[in-house]
């Protein structure tokens, strides 16, 4: 029997201050990262987008998912906004560090921390 790909669920919540929280649950890989990419495209079309990506429910992420974070970060910065990653698990945080993204991407321990800070990278 062929192995079924794990589904990824992405939800978007807009906040009164115009920031957006994108929550991801599941595995980000070649088969599922397009859902994240499409969602990011939609929220990045706003002027000065301010986006927090909640990674607390992500168990696996491959280069396709990592690429979505970098592209989203670059687009947000170019538009005068930001993209912040929040609550990555130990494995994902290690992966981000291993591939050299921790100095480049803003990573916070929780969504609340990412929303509360004025710091921008």
Automatic annotation (TrEMBL):
It comes from Actinoplanes friuliensis DSM 7358. Residues 17-118 form the STAS domain. One of its GO terms (molecular function) is anti-sigma factor antagonist activity. This is STAS domain-containing protein.
């Amino acid at each position: 029997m062929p192995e079924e790909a794990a589904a990824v669920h992405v939800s978007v919540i807009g906040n009164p201050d115009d920031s957006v929280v994108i929550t991801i649950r599941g595995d980000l890989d070649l088969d599922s990262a397009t859902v994240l990419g499409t969602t990011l495209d939609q929220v990045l079309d706003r002027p000065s987008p301010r986006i927090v990506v909640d990674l607390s429910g992500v168990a696996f992420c491959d280069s396709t998912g990592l690429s979505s974070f970098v592209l989203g970060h670059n687009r947000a910065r170019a538009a005068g906004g930001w993209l912040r990653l929040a609550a990555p698990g130990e494995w994902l945080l290690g992966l981000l560090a291993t591939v050299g993204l921790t100095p480049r991407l803003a990573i916070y321990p929780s969504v609340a921390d990412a929303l509360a800070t004025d710091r921008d990278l």
